[in-house]
Design goal:
Layout lengths: L1 H26 L5 H8 L13 H4 L6 E3 L7 H6 L24 E4 L12 H15 L7 E3 L5 E3 H6 L1 E6 L2 E6 L7 H14 L2 H7 L14 E4 L5 E11 L4 E7 L8 E3 L19 E3 L2 E3 L3 E3 L3
Antiparallel strand pairs: 1-8, 2-10, 3-4, 5-6, 7-8, 7-13, 8-9, 9-10, 11-12
């Protein structure tokens, strides 16, 4: 009888160990052990704690200079995006702290809606849409649903609303015209609900040559789940080598944040980007990197 209990206990202990091992593998799928070690070391070399924009927060390595873009361009809009004070934490949509606070060096000054809808792709959709709104290019605001149906802000403002039945979508004028900013954000909530990384991957032009990457392009894994990060600054040296900064939203919906490069602390937070490569970004790893661009 004693032997029976010993064997039973040993089996139970083995099961517990097995579960712990599996749990660790899952936990570190998007955050390898090296991430933890690299995140605890001193701050990256190129950080200006007093900087209040992306441009001011991150310094340029010796031998590089920022790629020049026209005033008023989307690229300059991103580069000069306001940041919260250095040391601000990533906040989830429910006002709780995100569990992983070691992978960023800045929080973009963009609200996180309490409805939980503004996830990774949604955050970049919002930033792009607000740029178009602020620059009187509202007629360009529009995105595909995952079903492939195009939904524009112009039609939404005119009162057209989608009727969705599975993968079938039709639009009908069921609301009064309303071009207000409040209605614009209701439109974005609709886009957040029916669009995402998969729809953006299929909808947007692909960048197949990394030499053609520019500020505003996005590193993307289209899927459910998928992930996406946006290039928010770009530098080049005399040899034509480029480095990039990235920011991302996340799931659950949370603060949009400027990420460290946890794999190469010598250039962090700058990244060297390659196509079809493994690119770790904070708490996520793109295992087959692809790039897209807003039209």
């Amino acid at each position: 009888m004693l032997g029976f209990f010993v064997i039973k206990f040993m089996k139970k202990g083995f099961l517990i160990v097995l579960l712990l091992v599996v749990g660790c593998i899952v936990a570190f799928q998007f955050k390898p052990v090296s991430y933890v070690a690299n995140a605890i070391v001193t701050l990256p070399n190129y950080i200006n704690k007093e900087g209040t924009t992306i441009n001011d927060r991150v310094l340029v390595p010796e031998g590089f200079k920022r790629v020049v873009y026209p005033e008023g361009s989307f690229q300059q809009y991103l580069r000069n995006y306001e940041l919260k004070p250095f040391g601000s934490k990533i906040i989830n949509y429910d006002d709780s702290y995100y569990y992983w606070q070691l992978g960023h060096i800045g929080i973009l000054d963009i609200p996180v809606p309490k409805n939980g809808l503004q996830q990774c792709a949604d955050a970049l959709i919002r930033i792009r849409s607000e740029y178009l709104w602020d620059n009187n290019r509202k007629e360009e605001i529009g995105f595909n649903f995952t079903s492939g149906h195009y939904c524009s802000w112009k039609k939404y403002a005119e009162g057209f609303r989608p009727q969705i039945n599975g993968n079938k979508v039709s639009f009908h004028k069921t609301a009064k015209p309303d071009s207000s900013k409040a209605n614009f954000y209701r439109y974005l909530n609709l886009i957040y609900t029916y669009s995402g990384t998969l729809s953006l991957y299929h909808e947007l032009p692909k960048i197949n040559n990394v030499k053609n990457l520019k500020l505003g392009d996005m590193l993307i894994k289209g899927g459910s789940p998928g992930h996406i990060a946006m290039i928010c600054d770009e530098i080049v040296n005399e040899s034509g080598e480029k480095r990039y900064l990235l920011f991302q939203g996340n799931t659950p919906a949370q603060s949009v944040h400027l990420v460290k490069n946890l794999e190469d602390g010598s250039i962090s937070p700058w990244y060297k980007l390659e196509k079809d490569a493994i690119i770790p970004v904070s708490n996520y790893t793109f295992y087959d990197s692809k790039f897209v661009r807003f039209k």
